[in-house]
Automatic annotation (TrEMBL):
GO molecular function terms noted in the UniProt entry: hydrolase activity, acting on ester bonds
Protein name per the record: DUF459 domain-containing protein
Native source organism of the sequence: Oricola cellulosilytica
SUPFAM superfamilies cross-referenced by the UniProt entry: SGNH hydrolase (SSF52266)
One Pfam family linked to the record: DUF459
InterPro entries according to UniProt: DUF459, SGNH_hydro_sf
Length: 428
């Protein structure tokens, strides 16, 4: 009898469980060649060979089929959240949450109505700031059928370069062509430059420059006055540059004096675009009361909300001047649309009732001469007839006459006759 070595004995003991496991689970099928299928695809269809360790311990780990992610839509946003199911297994579960993209709030726009054929025209002239003012006025009167805004602003114009555009000489022809009810002017933002005076160049805000500039401003106001058209002069706004704002403040005084001299109206808008300290602000309160962007990034131009606020100050003046024509409820400008004051018919001389004037010296305004509260007069009127005499209560309630004082009562202020009066004591 041969004695087995230790190594052979260990091999036999190790092979017995393997054979038993193969008998229980079965042998794996042979790999067959599949027609028309590639090698990689055939390997995916064949079952995976289990290792010896898996046969002994069993398949405790489960495989998770890979998930196919779909391409998200443009209108939605997908958020993936991952969480672990257990500490032993590394299996994770992914949940996809779909949320709709937020929509921008709708901006309310003023409804535009068709203008009447007989609508009153508001003419806006000036530089590029006046062009923005005209856009704001169009939005302000968009729902008013009786008011039409016409802009004849020239963006690069002013009073300094009259060789480029001469406003005092051109405004009369424009008014004759448009036939406006009101002329609104806003100018001066391009006038901070040298000016030719008497054949020589003068710098801004010198004595000769100011005199010539004031002369041109007054000529423009006189040209508008000659057409018998109401004038509304809008002052210049502040700018980001302090030197520019200082010059515009001086120009506004020139415009105020010129408009007042011809019976026009000057509208000051300066306080609407500065803070409490009088400094320039790019954002501020809009016409709706909300904080909005008023000025562009250059510190000169206006945004859409800034143009609307700019027109807010002028809108009030225009509505006051045009009256019922600026009402949004007006549908026609015919004479029957306006309210007329109806007076009562005149009375003939025979139907007049004349009343004599009442003298101010009469106490009761009835021709009597007695003072109010005269008890003796009322007693004389009643006489000695007891039927006509009034009781104390009726005198108090109807006539306001108090009852006569009783001796010893609180309202008895008479001095006793039998009691001697005290003599005054002379000082010693």
């Amino acid at each position: 009898m041969h004695v087995l070595s230790f190594s052979r004995l260990r091999t036999c003991l190790f092979a017995v469980p393997v054979a038993v496991a193969l008998l229980l689970t079965g042998f794996p099928p042979e790999t067959s060649r599949l027609d028309g299928i590639g090698e990689a695809q055939a390997q995916q269809q064949q079952p995976r060979r289990r290792t010896l360790l898996e046969l002994l311990k069993g398949n405790q780990q489960q495989q998770v089929a890979p998930q196919v992610k779909k391409a998200p839509k443009r209108a939605t946003r997908r958020t993936t959240k991952t969480r672990k199911t257990s500490r032993r297994s590394n299996r994770t579960v992914k949940r996809t949450v779909t949320t709709s993209a937020p929509r921008a709030p709708a901006v309310a726009e003023s409804e535009t109505v068709e203008k009447l054929d007989s609508a009153r025209t508001v003419l806006v002239v000036g530089d590029f700031i006046a062009g923005g003012l005209a856009q704001g006025l169009e939005e302000a009167f968009a729902d008013v059928a009786g008011v039409r805004i016409v802009s004849r602003a020239n963006g690069s114009s002013g009073f300094v370069r009259d060789d480029f555009y001469d406003w005092p000489a051109s405004v009369g022809a424009i008014i004759e062509e448009v036939s406006p009810a009101v002329v609104v002017v806003m100018i001066g933002s391009n006038d901070r430059q040298a000016m030719r005076v008497g054949g020589r160049s003068e710098e801004v805000r010198t004595g000769a420059w100011d005199r010539e500039y004031i002369s041109r401003v007054n000529s423009f106001a006189a040209a508008v006055q000659a057409t018998n058209t109401p004038l509304v002069w809008v002052g210049g706004p502040p700018f980001r540059f302090k030197s520019m704002s200082a010059d515009i403040l001086a120009f506004n005084e020139f415009y105020r004096d010129a408009a007042t001299a011809v019976g026009g109206t000057f509208v000051d808008i300066w306080d609407g675009f500065v803070d409490e300290d009088g400094a320039f602000v790019a954002s501020g309160s809009g016409v709706s009361g909300q904080t909005v962007r008023l000025r562009a990034s250059d510190g000169i131009n206006f945004t859409k909300d800034g143009k609307r606020k700019l027109a807010f100050y002028v809108e009030r003046q225009i509505r006051q001047m045009l009256g019922d024509a600026a009402s949004p409820l007006l549908t026609t400008l015919a004479p029957e649309s306006f309210s007329t004051m109806r007076l009562p018919p005149l009375q003939p001389e025979t139907d007049l009732v004349r009343i004599n004037p009442i003298p101010l010296t009469d106490p009761e305004l009835d021709g009597g001469a007695a003072l109010l509260g005269d008890i003796t007069r009322r007693e004389r009127e009643a006489g000695n007839n007891p039927l006509q005499a009034k009781s104390i209560r009726r005198k108090l309630v109807q006539d306001g006459v108090p009852p006569p004082p009783m001796p010893g009562r609180a309202n008895d202020f008479t001095w006793p006759e039998d009691e001697p009066q005290a003599e005054p004591v002379e000082p010693s």
